[in-house]
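#lab-general

N.A. 3:47 PM
ok so I finally got the sequence cleaned up, no stray characters, all 642 residues accounted for. can someone with queue access submit it? mine expired

B.Y. 3:52 PM
send it over

N.A. 3:53 PM
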Amino acid sequence: MSVDGWNTVLVLGGIRSGKSEFAESLVTDAPVVRYVATAPEGDPEDTEWATRLAAHRARRPGSWTTEETTEDPRRLADVLESAEPNEMLLVDDLGGWVTVLLDPDHQPADDVATIAELAEAIRGCAARVVLVSPEVGLSLVPTTPLGRAFTDALGAANRAVADACDAVVLVVAGQPVWLKPAATATELSAPATVTAPTAAATAPVVASLADTEPTPEVQLPDVLTPTPPAAPTAESGNPWAAPTMALPMVSTGLVIQPGMELPMPDEYAGPQAVDRLATLDVPGAGLGVLDRVVGFAAATQGTSTPVAWGSVRVLLLHGDHAGGAAAGTVAGESARRAAQARAGQGALARLAAESGASLQVVDTPASAPIEDQPALAPEQVESALRYGWRLAEQAADAGVQLLVLGACGAGTEAAAAAVLAATAGAEPPAVLGRVITDSGEIDDAAWMIRCAAVRDALHRTRRSSRGAKDILAELGGGDVAVATGVLLGATARRVPVLLDGPVGLAAGMVSRDLAGQARHWCLLADHGGHPAVRLAADVLGLTPLLDLRMDLGEGANALVALPLLRSVLALSAALPVHPSLTGTDDTDPAADEPESTDPSYADPDLTEPDPTEPDFAEPEPAGPGPASTGADEQPASSWRAG
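B.Y. 4:20 PM
back already:
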C-alpha cells in the first residue's frame, strides 16, 4: 500500500491488533522513512517489554532511520514541524508518547496545551506522516488513578490527532476499517467555494436554452464528413434532444455549478422495454447481456420500443498534458493522430465512415505539469466547461441521437488516474496501465515516472478542496474539463453518450458533483482492459457490455461495437410478438391465403429452383453509406424478392 491521496494518517488499534504492521505497510513504497520512536526503554529487568521493542526494530528495513523522542514529549511536535516535504515519517506510537507525557520527570506544566501543540504541528507538517496509537476508548474504566489519567490523556490525544489528520483507520484483528477516508469523505476538505457573483449575476435571468445561447468564447470546430442526417423538421420535432428545463444564465453565459438539476432518463420505459423482449418471437433465449442496450435506449428515448441510433457524432478531444504525466509518449504523436482524423484517415475516421457517423476533432487547452502546478487556471476551467456544453448543444441541434466521446492527448491516462485518486480514493499505481512503446515493448521506467507525477500532484494538492472545479483545475486539465462539459450539456439536451477510455470516465467522476444525473445518460461498450476505466465504471455503476479488450484509441473502440448495438436495437424494434402470446397460429402461413387461379402460379415447395436466382434474400443497408450514392437503396425493413 501507499499513502497517495492524503498527507497524514492516524492508525488506531487495540493490543496485538496489527496496527503497527498495517502502518508500516502504508510506507513500504517510500524511498526514505524516518521512524520516530516514542516509547521509553522501560525497566531493564522487564524482558517481555524488551522483546516487544526488539520485534519492532527487527521489522524496520535497513534504509529507515530512527529518531527517539522519549526524553521530551514536546520534541515530537518539533520533529513534525521541521520535516521536509520529501520525507515520510512513521510515529509509533502515541501511547508511549502519552506515557512520557505523564511521567513526573518529563511532564510539562500543561498536558492539554502539549496535545494541542502536537495537533497543530500535524496540520502544518509538510512531510507525509503515519501515526500509530492504541485505541483505549473501548476498554473498561481503569480502577487506579494513574490508569484513568493515562486513558483520559490518550483519549484526548487521539481525538485531537484524528481531527488534525487527513485520514483515520481502525485496525481490528488485523483488518483495517477506514473511519475517515481522505478521498471520499466530504468532511476532509472544505466545501467547494463558489465565487461571489457580480452585481449583474445576483439576480440571474432564467432563460430557456432554446432561447438564449451562451456568449461564444471560441469558434467550435468543424464537423467532418460523413455529415449526419438532416435535423428533424419543425413539424416532427426532435423529442430526444429538446430543451427540457430552464437553467441559470447571466450576461457572461451559462452558469455551471454544483448541484445542477438536469433531466433523468425515463424510469419506466427502460424496464418496460426489457420486459417486452421476453415476448418477442425469437428462436433462442434472447439477447443475453445486450438487453441492457435496449433498456438504456428505451430510457433515454422515452419509449418502450426504442429504435437504433441513426445520427451519431464522434467527439475526439485533443489536448496534451505536460510533465511526467506524458512520460513514454512520442512528442507530436497526439497532434499527428488529430490531424490524421481531420483528414479522414486512420482507424477512427475509417470506422466513423463505416458507421455513417460524423467526426468532430476538438482542440482543448494544454495542461501544465500537475506535479508542479495546477493543470489549468480557474477561468480556463469555466471556459472549458461551457465550451464542452456548447459542443453537446451543437450536436443536439443538428439532430444527433448519440455522442461518442474519445480523446487522443499525451498524458491523458495519468491525468485520469489523478482524478480517480482524488474522487474515488484510488491508488495511482493500481489504475495506471502499463506504458507500451511504438515497438510494442513495455516501458516500466516511463510508468514509474507517471506514477511519481500523480503522487506528487496529490501531495501538492493534499489540502486543496475536492470540489469538481478544483479537481479539474488542479489535476484534470483541459480535455477532462471539456469532456465534463460535454456530459453535462448532453444530459441537459437528453442526448446519450457512449464513453470510451479514461478521459470520458474521469469526466463522469467529476460530473457527479455538478449534476449526478449525467451518469445515467452514459453507456460503456467495453472497458478495453484499462484499470482506470474499470474502477471508474464500477463507481459510476456503468457495467461494460463487452469484454473485447481492444486498444485502437479512444473513440475507435466504441465505433467497433456500435454496429452490434444498432443491430440489437433494430432487431428488438422489428421482431413481432410470439404467436403463443397473441392467440393466433401462424404455423401454416399459406393456409389462409386464397388459392391462385393464375396458371403461371406454382407451389414454391414443388417448383424447381432457378440456378440464376439467389438462394436467399439479402437485407439492404439502412441508408447510404459514406461511399454510397444511395440512389437505389431501400429501407432496412425491405427485402429483395429472391
